[in-house]
Amino acid sequence: GPPGGTGGDDWAPTGIDVSKPSIARVYDAVLGGKDNFAVDRVIAQQSQDIVPEIGDVARFNRDLLGRAVRFMAQSGIRQFLDLGSGLPTVQNTHQVAQSVAPDARVVYVDIDPIVLAHGRALLAENHNTTVVTADLRDPKAVLDLPQVREFIDFDQPVGLMLVGVIHHLGDDEDPDGIVRAYLEALPAGSYFLLTHFCASSPDALALEGALLTSLGTGRFRTLEEITAYFDGLELLDPGVVYLPQWRPEEPVAAELTVGQRLMAGGLALKH
Ligand code: SAM
User: Fold this and answer.
1) What is the mean pLDDT of residues 89-110?
2) What angle do CA 184, 190, 196 make, to 5 degrees?
3) What is the CATH number of the domain that holds 66?
4) pLDDT, tens digit, 9 for 90 and up, residues 160-175
5) What is the DSSP string of 172-226?
6) Is the CB of residue 167 less than 8 Å from the CB of residue 196?
7) Does the pLDDT at position 64 exceed 50?
8) How many angstroms separate the alpha carbon of residue 254 from the centre of ligand 1?
9) Is residue 145 part of a domain?
10) Which of 127, 190, 192, 218 is the most exposed place for a label (fewest CB within 10 A)?
11) What domain count does the chain have?
12) Rounded mean pLDDT of 228-233?
């Protein structure tokens, strides 16, 4: 059946444009959430037509996020900067981190105001977590945000997260320089988590073309290009790999499907 909810579009919070698709809402539709509109569901459906496993891919991504945040929290990280955090679903960064360390602080940053509208309700009772609407393409502005300064002590290690978002930046937007600017602001002992669409099959390239047409963004990069974002850091075991291969909790088949190879990611430590 079609991904996402099937309800009407009359619930939109003020300031939300329901005539144009949004990345956050398309992703929500792919994950089977209800915070999406008809324009978003069309793109989710198109994506599913090209890669039938697209829902699984989103879940691989959320699962990896959960495993990596748990590892960072268990390694002593008590503050997380989650950029392009998306609509809260299950296994949110703050829930995973705070299940390990209740005092862990999380700042969610997303360009889409629907994330803030939704996050406010979820976080009303959580004083260690905040949501900010901002454009991550301006690292200086994001790093200087009052909420970021209040929640993150840049003298202490940080868990920097760019999960499923850098592929929404075109090459002309200097994704490399943007990633570097965030990493430079972090002290030694900080971690960097990145996942990214991977140019790993003809179907992946077909999806890239469809997303560029419908959403206007979606740049699938090679494993080498994705690995280059970690330059200068200690890439932790097992390196940059396809999502299900990153520290799996269950055995993974040697031969991966198109969906299993659709995204890749890794976790690194800054020295
Ligand atoms: N990080 C979450 C995850 O991996 O499950 C959500 C990923 S979702 C595919 C990408 C998110 O990045 C969307 O919520 C979108 O609004 C956000 N985003 C895209 N461009 C952005 C930008 N320039 N600044 C901040 N957020 C952005």
Assistant:
1) 95
2) 80
3) 3.40.50.150
4) 999 999 999 999 999 9
5) GG-HHHHHHHHHHTSPTT-EEEEEEEB--SHHHHHHHHHHHHHTS----B-HHHH
6) yes
7) yes
8) 30
9) yes
10) 127
11) 1
12) 98
Task: Work out the pLDDT band at 122, boundaries 50, 70, 90.
Answer: confident
Residue 180, in any domain of the structure: yes
Q: Is 193 helix (H, G, I), strand (E, B) or coil?
A: strand
Query: For residue 26, is it within any domain?
Result: no
Residue 176 lies in a domain: yes
**Full domain range(s) for residue 178:** 54-201+218-269
* pLDDT score at 196: 98
Residue 112 CA: nearest ligand 1 atom is: 16
Reported as a single tens digit per residue, the pLDDT across 166-212 is 999 999 999 999 999 999 999 999 999 999 999 999 999 999 999 99
Using CB distances shorter than 6 Å, the residues near ligand 1 are 23-24, 27, 61-62, 65, 84-86, 109-112, 115, 135-137, 163-165, 168
221-250: average pLDDT: 98
